[in-house]
Structure formats: C-alpha cells, structure tokens
Amino acid sequence: MKKPELLVTPHSVAAIDLLAEAGADAFVVGEQRYGLRLAGEFSRTDIAQAIETAHAKGKKVYVAVNAIFHNDIANELDEYIAFVKEAGADAIVFGDPAVLMAVRAAAPDMPLHWNTETTATNYFTCNYWGKRGAVRAVLARELSMEEIIEVKEHAEVAIEVQVHGMTCMFQSKRPLLGHYFEYQGKAMEIENRKDAKNMLLYDKERENKYPIFEDANGTHIMSPNDICIIDELAELLEAGIDSFKIDGILHSPEYLLEVTKLYRQAIDLCAECPEEYEEIKDELLEKIEDLQPAHRPLDTGFFFKETVY
Amino acid sequence: MSAVINEKISTIVDGKRVIAKKPELLAPAGTLEKLKIAIHYGADAVYIGGQEYGLRSNAGNFTLEQMKEGVEFAKKYGAKVYVTTNIYAHNENIDGLEDYLRGLQNAGITGIIVADPLIIETCRRVAPKVEVHLSTQQSLSNWRAVQYWKEEGLHRVVLARETTSEEMREMKEKVDIEIETFIHGAMCIAYSGRCVLSNHMTARDSNRGGCCQSCRWDYDLYSLEENGEQALFSEDDSPFAMSPKDLKLVESIPKLIELGIDSLKVEGRMKSIHYVATVVSVYRKVIDTYCADPDNFQIRQEWLDELEKCANRPAAPAFFEGTPGVEEQLFGVHGKKASHDFAGLVLDYEEETGMVTLQQRNFFRPGDEIEFFGPEIDNFTQKVGTIWDEQGKELDAARHPLQVIRFQTAKPVYPNNMMRKGLE
Question: Short name of one Pfam family for this protein (chain A) (predicted)?
C-alpha cells in the first residue's frame, strides 16, 4: 500500500537531522512574519540551513507563508518568495490569495500547498485552489473521517491531514493577553508575554484548558486536547491520503521526536503488515499516552465527532 | 473636513462642492418585517439570510416566497436585496446548492455574499445574473488579495473587520472594484472564518452558522510553571475576557465617503426593528447631510444621542484608525441595556382627532414620557394621556404584546413611525 508522507513541524534547524532519522519525510518551517503558528522561529539563514540539512537526507522542506496579510507585508511578498525559491524550498504553504499573486510574479514554478486551516472543508474548493496553482490542500481539522475520505475520492490535488498534536481554535489580530494585563495594571510585569508559551485559559464549565499565546499575528487559542489517531490510521492509508502531519507546536522537541518515531513505526506497519499494525496499535497509543504532559489529554479531534449547525 | 478632494467623489455645483458618489447604506434584515422597516427608514440595500447556506441559523431567515415579496417591496423604493450565502460548505452541502442559487436568481436577488469558492463558482455557472460579493468571512485585508478577487470576476468585496482606513485607501487606489465595509454593530473578535471555538466547545460548526459566541464568555487565565498552575488574576480582578466593544463609525462617515467606499454596512440581522430603524435613520441623515454640503458638515449631538437609544453595548471605532487598545475591550460586564425601550409601532393616524392607532411592543401606561420618531417626522416627546383599546375601552396600561392601542399624540405621526420609552 502507498505510504503517506510523514510531515512534522520542527522547533529548530538542529532538530531536523534527528527528526529525519526518526522517520520524518518532510518539514514545515518559517517565520511568524509570514507564517502562522509555527513550532519554531526560522530566520532566513535558518530556513536555508533547514533546506540544506533536509535535502542532504533526501527530505523535503515546505515554507509557511500562510499568514493573513495586510498591505504592509503583502508588499514584501515578492521579495520573500524570491528568497524562498532561491533557498530551494520544495513548496510554499499559503492561505491568502496575495501569496498566489506574488508567486505568479516572483516564482511561477514554485509548488503551492493551500492551507487556511479552518476553511478547507470540501473537495470542490480544494480543487478550485488546485486549478489556480495549488498541488496540495491541507484539510480543516474540523472534518470527520468520512468527510476526509470523500474529499480524497474527489480531489485533483494531494491531501494533507493532521494526525497528531494541537490545533488552533481562534486567531484575533488584537493582543488580548496584553489588553488583559493592561486592564489589571500589570502590563510592565508581563512585558515578555510575547515569548511566553505557557499560558492557559481555564473553561470551568467544560473543565478544559486552552493554551493561549500572542505573537506578531495576534492572539491564538489552541485546542484543549492533542489529536492522536496513531491507532486509527488504516482507513486514511487505504483512502490514499498523501500526507500525515504531526504538529510540534507548544510541545518539547523531545516529545516531538518520540511521537515521530512512533508514527513512523505505525505507518510502516500499517502499509506493509496490516495484521501486525492491528495487533500493536493499542500499544503504540499507550506509549504516546505515557509521553503526554499532565495538562494535555489525547483525543481523536473531529475524526469521529459529529458537529451540528 | 480636511480630506483631500478626489474628483471621482465630489464635484462643484454652483460654486459649492457636493458629493457625486454617494455610498450605499446597507442594512441587516433578519425578517420580512425588518426588511420593510430598514428600507422605509432609508437603507439603499438590505442583506437577508435564506433557509440554507447562511451563517445565522437563528435569524428569522427567508423562504423563497418571502424573498420575492421582499424584492418587490424593495423595488418600489429603488432598493436592492442581497442574500448571505457565506458558509464554508462541507461535502454534504454541495447537493442542493445549484437549485438554491437558481431560486435566488428567480426571486430577483441582486447579489449574494459568499466566502466559499464552491458557492462563488457554482453561482456564476447556474445563476449568472446574480452579483457575487466576497464575504468578510474571507478576512480580506490586503490590496493584492483584493486584486485577486477582482481578476476572478467578483463584483464587490467586503473587507475584514481588521482593515484600517489607510489600508482601505491603498486598496481603492490600486484596485478598481466595489468595496463594502462594516460601519456599525457587533463584531467578531477573531478573524472571521478562522474561529472554531464553537466546534470545540459545543460541537456546533461556527463556519456553517452554529456559532455559540463563546468569545463572549469569561475564562480564568493561568500560567503553567514548574510547581504547577499559577493564577494570573487576583480575587478582585474580573476574569479574562475577549469581548470587544461594538463598532461605531458614525463620526468617520465623511472619511469613508471621501475614500470612495462603495457600501457602508450595518451589522445585526438578529436585532429588533427598533434597532434597525434607529441606526439606519441616523446614518441616512449623516450620509445625506455630508453629501449635500461636505465642506460645512458637522456631526450633530442629536445623532449621537439617537444611536445611544438602541445601543446594547459600548461602541468604538475598532481598527479604523489602527489596532484598538485595552479601552476597546469589555471586562466583567459584556453588555448594557439600551437607554430606551421600543414601546409601539404606528399603524394609523387620524388627522381630525389627532389619534394614533399603535401596536404595543413594550409595556407603557398613561403618564409615561414617550418619544416618536420616523422618516417623515422630527423626533418629539410627550406624555401618554388616556389610552383605549380597539373597542374604545379605556385601559390603565398597555400590557399585552401586539395589542392595538389608541391615544392622542401631540403632533401628526405616520404608519411605521415608532414610539420608544426612556428607561430610568
């Protein structure tokens, strides 16, 4: 059976070698000026090095240019995209059509991955962006297993699905943590909040804890649980999903490395020896449970959850 | 006003500058009644929701028959009707879309407000007479993306709520396309389309109309330290909250007109007819007064006071002049009661006797201080005298919703004028 790509979001250039050895096939890197919610911050030098390191191991690197842009940065995109092309990236990840315009101008041959996160919800729209230059669509994490498989059946572009880690629930342009601290009169004490990645919103009614952080793109609120479907990969493999993503954001590099190894094992077994995968998949899930920080329960996201409207 | 003169926008008539390009005033209409009121009070266009594909599952929402009636009504005033079809569709929503869009075209709808390219492309194929307007759900916030949608053949784009006036200026300069922007009402605190709090918290899909407004709830903020979770608030602090003040750009209307913005949009399909009538009539006056004599324009206190009469949240200019600060956030209390209650809707007026026939919309009784307003009259206040029911029986109070009441007014009133009552 065809094996999907195992895509991870590394924290630093130094992590790439280890993650490649652990079984990652591809990496998403970038900087917050252009990309959204990256596990690590990669300067231009870092991006060039990441690409060099990954390519030496036969792995791919995609550069995230998927922020929601205002005029100021939209005007810089040609220059940034020319740099990304020069650095040898394998694809650019975009959401804002401004990037499409800039790629047409600055790097018309550059492969594009369409990733707006929440709005990639049907196959028609995936194919729409395909006709405008995308070779891959990254699906919304709010889709069910059934919906994902139906998208894949009709898709003319490659399909990427997140199989592990936290997901973004909310992005505001406003610095909402900063506003709260200012309101409390302690803005000075917490000046370094922009680097703080350890804050949680507690929702008493649901007893959920939502990670929250601020960066150049505003305020981000993340899911209370980490998706983990290491024991539910068979259907996605059978459907021929092209890429499985593990997001390392707000987890430690050590955690990401161990999780990557376990998914590598799961994917290989599931593709090569499905009976054996069935036998050990619960064990793989237990191993991940052992790695989880106390405040991060696992769940299966929306793969098996119905939403109404 | 110190705005730079733009020939496309103003012209000189008899030595005086007047505005040649008046923007559209676009109002929400959750029901057929609200549609009629919005247009009667001065909206140039309204936007409504259909039974499917829109983002307000709880707003009244129109059947195709009601849409036809709305379009007929609007035509008499030269007004337009747009339909919000701005969900992000899932596969299961694809079936039925073509018929739905054909139905809108047959109903005479001028345009649809859309976010998902599925609906954009399907509309152009099966209902080509219908204009396609890009919804704010696409969070469109830069001129190159505006250029993209122009090249895709869209008729109009609605900007992200995060767009500043300077950004609008650059968009207008660089791209020749109609631009619509919000001027008044409640706003998402998140980038529209990029919030799935409802999906996670209540299993309701926010991008298909299921938003449960969890951004208006309170949360406790903690930091995760080596020795456990530390509260980042003290006993006396209000909890962490994200609620923004509502948007209000009444004082920036001159600037928006000079920028050449094509459509000025009021939020609120769930709001009452009293709210819609009040807000629309104020903005109608501001736009008309400015356009007639922009160089001698001054905002009037009475217009600002009028808006307060239906405001159920403090308001601010949001992103219009740059990223808003802490003063535009609400902590502790997320709303307030409007200063006035909608008390009655005028059904008829008898000139000989000075008697109004009115439909009760809130409790009132003889002796109450009330105010009448409407497009044909200047606001006036009076005390309610003796009141009668339809059968001529004297009443001690108007207690029942929609009850028909008669009493004498101090000045003439007209059908669809409204009566409001100040709250202590």
Answer: Peptidase_U32
Calpha distance A144→A306 (Å, rounded): 7
Stretches in chain A below the pLDDT threshold 50: none
What residue ranges do the domains of chain B occupy?
A: 10-192+243-328, 340-422
Helices (H), ranges, B7-142: 32-40, 64-76, 97-106, 117-126
Work out the number of other CB atoms within 10 angstroms of the CB of residue B110: 18
The CATH superfamily assigned to B10-192+243-328 is Aldolase class I (3.20.20.70)
Residues 142-201 of A with CB under 8 A from B: 142-143, 147, 150-151, 154, 168-184, 190, 196, 198-201
ipTM: 0.96
Cα B291 to Cα B14, B166, B258, B279, B294: the distances in Å are 15, 21, 10, 18, 6
pLDDT tens-place string over residues A81-98: 999 999 999 999 999 999
- In the 8-state DSSP scheme, what is residue A273? -
Does residue B121 sit at the A interface (CB-CB below 8 Å)?
Answer: yes
Q: Which of A170, A175, A204 sits opposite B195 (nearest CB)?
A: A170
By CA distance, what is B235's nearest residue in A?
Answer: A184
CB A230 within 8 A of CB A264: no
Question: CB of B23 within 8 A of CB of B9?
Answer: no
Tell me: the pLDDT tens digits for A110-145? 999 999 999 999 999 999 999 999 999 999 999 999
Q: How buried is residue B8: exposed, middle or buried, by Cβ count under 10 Å (0-12/13-18/19+)? A: exposed
Please tell me if residue B53 touches chain A, with a CB cutoff of 8 Å.
Answer: no
Angle (CA) B257-B261-B266 rounded to 5° is 90
Which helix (H) or strand (E) segment is B379 a member of? strand B377-383
CATH for the A5-167+225-299 domain, from 3.90.640.10, 3.30.40.10, 3.20.20.70, 2.60.40.3880: 3.20.20.70
pLDDT at residue B237 in the model: 87
Looking at beta carbons, which residues of chain B come within 8 Å of A143?
90
Nearest to B142 among A74, A176, A199 (CB): A74
Chain A residues near residue B222 by CB distance under 8 angstroms:
199-202, 209
What is the predicted pLDDT for the residue at B7?
Answer: 78
Determine contact, residues A204/B220, Cβ cutoff 8 Å: yes
Q: Where are the domains of chain A?
A: 5-167+225-299, 171-219
Helix, strand or coil, per DSSP, at residue B101: helix
CA distance B237 to chain A (A): 7
B141 CA to chain A: closest CA distance, Å?
5
Are the Cβ atoms of B201 and A171 closer than 8 angstroms? Answer: no
Task: Indicate the pLDDT class of residue B234, thresholds 50, 70 and 90.
Answer: confident
* Topology classification of domain B340-422: Elongation Factor Tu (Ef-tu); domain 3 (2.40.30)
Mean pLDDT, residues B196-207 taken together: 96
pLDDT surpassing 60 at residue B3: no
Q: What is the C-alpha R_g of chain B?
A: 23
Residue A105, chain B, CB below 8 Å: the answer is no
Residue-wise pLDDT for B369-419, tens only, equals 999 999 999 999 999 999 999 999 999 999 999 999 999 999 999 999 999
Both structure tokens of B204: 């309701």
User: What's residue B334's pLDDT?
Assistant: 75
Contact B50, B106 (CB under 8 A): no
Instruction: State the Cα–Cα distance between residues A121 and A302, nearest whole angstrom.
Output: 12
Mean pLDDT of all residues belonging to chain A: 96
Whether A98 and chain B come into contact, CB under 8 Å, resolves to yes
Total beta-carbon pairs less than 8 A apart between chain A and chain B: 207
From CA B276, how far away is CA B30, in angstroms rounded?
10
Nearest to B225 by CA among A291, A293, A179, A171: A293
Q: Does B326 touch chain A (CB under 8 A)?
A: yes
